[in-house]
Amino acid sequence: MKLTENEYGALAKRRSPDTKLYKTIPGAFVIGGLICCTGQLLLNLYSSAGLDKTAAGTLTSVTLVALSALLTGFGLYDKIAKHAGAGTLVPITGFANAVVSPALEFKTEGYVLGVGAKIFLIAGPVIVYGLAASALYGIILFITQAV
């Protein structure tokens, strides 16, 4: 079957579901905001418990990652994401979800060849290129400051 570009565009438009922007945008805003408010609440809680700003921030990040991983493990994160869309992509919780999801998908293959091998399937390239970029930027900074 040979289609022209216009015919393909018309076919894709007919077959694609309509987006409900009036629902998805407010949902993303509210859920993303709730995730951020939860982070701020945790930060305030840990600070009021006597932790300094750095330790409270670290513990907040760890808590958000752990909660996101648990919600993903119980299948709740995907249900929230279904209604929140991009609101669940708040960097730290979205990253935790991206690490845990492939591991859960391949757990039937065992802990070593399934979970261990696939846990960084999605997040691995982000980590690799992030580390490579930070090393490159560090070298550039070192050279420019030495001059």
Describe this structure in words.
The protein is built from seven helices and no strands. The chain has helices at residues 5-15, 21-48, 53-73, 76-84, 91-105, 111-118, 123-146. The longest helix has 28 residues, at 21-48. The protein is mostly helical. The model has no long low-confidence stretch (mean pLDDT 84).
Key structural traits:
147 residues, 0% strand
Mean pLDDT: 84
- Termini separation comes to 62 Å
In which range does the helix fraction lie?
over 70%
Unreliable stretches: none
Topology of this protein?
Blueprint: H1 5-15, H2 21-48, H3 53-73, H4 76-84, H5 91-105, H6 111-118, H7 123-146
Question: Would you kindly provide a brief summary of this structure?
Answer:
The chain has helices at 5-15, 21-48, 53-73, 76-84, 91-105, 111-118, 123-146. It is an all-alpha fold.
